[in-house]
Amino acid sequence: MDEVSTSVARWAAKDPERAAVIDEYATLSYGALNERANRWVGALQAAGVTPGDGVLLMLPNRVEFIEVLVAMIRADVVPYFMNSNVTYYTADDVINLAVSTNARLLFTTRAFIREMALHKEVPFRVWCVEEVNVFEYPNTEEPLTGRGTDIVFFTSGTTGTPKGIIVNKSVFNLRLPTSSHVIEPRLHLLIKPLTFRGSMTTACNILQEGNTVVVARQSNPAKWMELIERYNIFFINLGPSDFMRWLDDLESIGARFPSSVKHIMTIGEPLTGALKSRIKGLPSHLRITDLYGTSEAGAITMINDHEWAGKDESCGRPVFFNTIRIVDENDRDLPVGEVGEVWVKTRYRMREYFGDPVATSETCVGDFVRTGDMGFLDEQGYLYLCGRKHDMIKLSGFQIFPGEVENVLREASDVEDAVVIGIHHPERMQEPIAFIRLREPMNAESEVKKRREILSFCESRLARYKVPAGVWFVKEIPLNAAGKADRRELAQRLVRNTSG
């Protein structure tokens, strides 16, 4: 990340009024961003934070996130990034993480403190960014030491104890060529939280190029459209579920797709075939990039829309000189077309899990990272994912990959989205249950008919044992902190509905 800090300073000297970061309420030029980051360095030093110390950052998308990030790079502290959604952590989670990381300071907001009910008797200092006047501190131009400080991304606690992923900050130095001339910056809208590795990597890339980061504070398609129209957004970075919600919103109000947007990159889960079909109806000038990656490995594969023909279900080929292996349960390489676990070799991999050497040794095997995703490669080296290893359904000796069944369900008439999970069965180990969101709500009688139609459609496309044992219609598919389908929540809903 040293290159990000250097780029901010370079653009501040070359074109100080150039827009660097924008949110719904504020705009920072490169000159202002550079100065405010330097003053945050002075504030950190005044608080007794020294190089190598830990600092917790629990901020939503807003301009202060970027200025504090640059300051932490310059102060050579270790940032611990946590999702700012209060539903993902308890006050005890925050306190325990601060204790385990020896963090001296927590950057957050008044809203977080209020909603979390985080009392003041905590073993660290709390700074709400709205309450700190950085101009009370000196403009400290701290020279970069190149210590190789770590960055730690903490997952949410939705599936247990928050998991920390340690990445060396050098992996964010993309070694982009220095621009020899000043051009008008392109504005890039980032939808997903900056606390996600993919979003932060994109933000670093944008700043290194001297372009403008526009961050959406709210997870609201109407607010995204306001930003797009106000700033003539060129590029958008978002998750597949965000994309689907946005398209739904545009269709519901009869709005046209904004003409300023020329490029969209999706991150997180790969695009589904059903979503790709909807995207094909968008303006022809629009370029779509589907990027598959994980927090542990960074970007893994990528595919652009012009490659979709004949590769609709693929998430692309390896990027950045990555190497992919498909491995069986005995860690042996599998041939083309056979399904196994996806292993990745990349210079952008994590170093380890925070405080968990056992999990590290299970995930990092030599130079490779085990992703936990199941998939296969075709003869051209394109990767196809079948689902998560731990989501695989075992039914009477058969293995069912939910992704295969979900793709078929999404092709059924009136189906907008689908998730399949395995539910315990006393005789057959597990059985597949489908949760489906329809494009339009139906009454009870129509739902009964639609359920029969969907099951009949599955029987025509799938082996009998893969056909869902039950179909439940839901208004929305719940999402977890990573913006992926929350299968755990769906399973809990099913238990509540069937036991009530």
TrEMBL record:
InterPro entries according to UniProt: AMP-bd_C, AMP-bd_C_sf, AMP-binding_CS, AMP-dep_synth/lig_dom, ANL_N_sf, ATP-dep_AMP-bd_enzyme
Gene3D superfamilies the UniProt entry points to: 3.30.300.30, N-terminal domain of ligase-like (3.40.50.12780)
Location of the AMP-dependent synthetase/ligase domain: 9-354
Record domain AMP-binding enzyme C-terminal: where: 404-484
Signal peptide range in chain numbering: none
PANTHER family, per database record: LONG-CHAIN-FATTY-ACID--COA LIGASE, NONRIBOSOMAL PEPTIDE SYNTHASE PES1 (EUROFUNG)-RELATED
Protein's recorded name: Class I adenylate-forming enzyme family protein
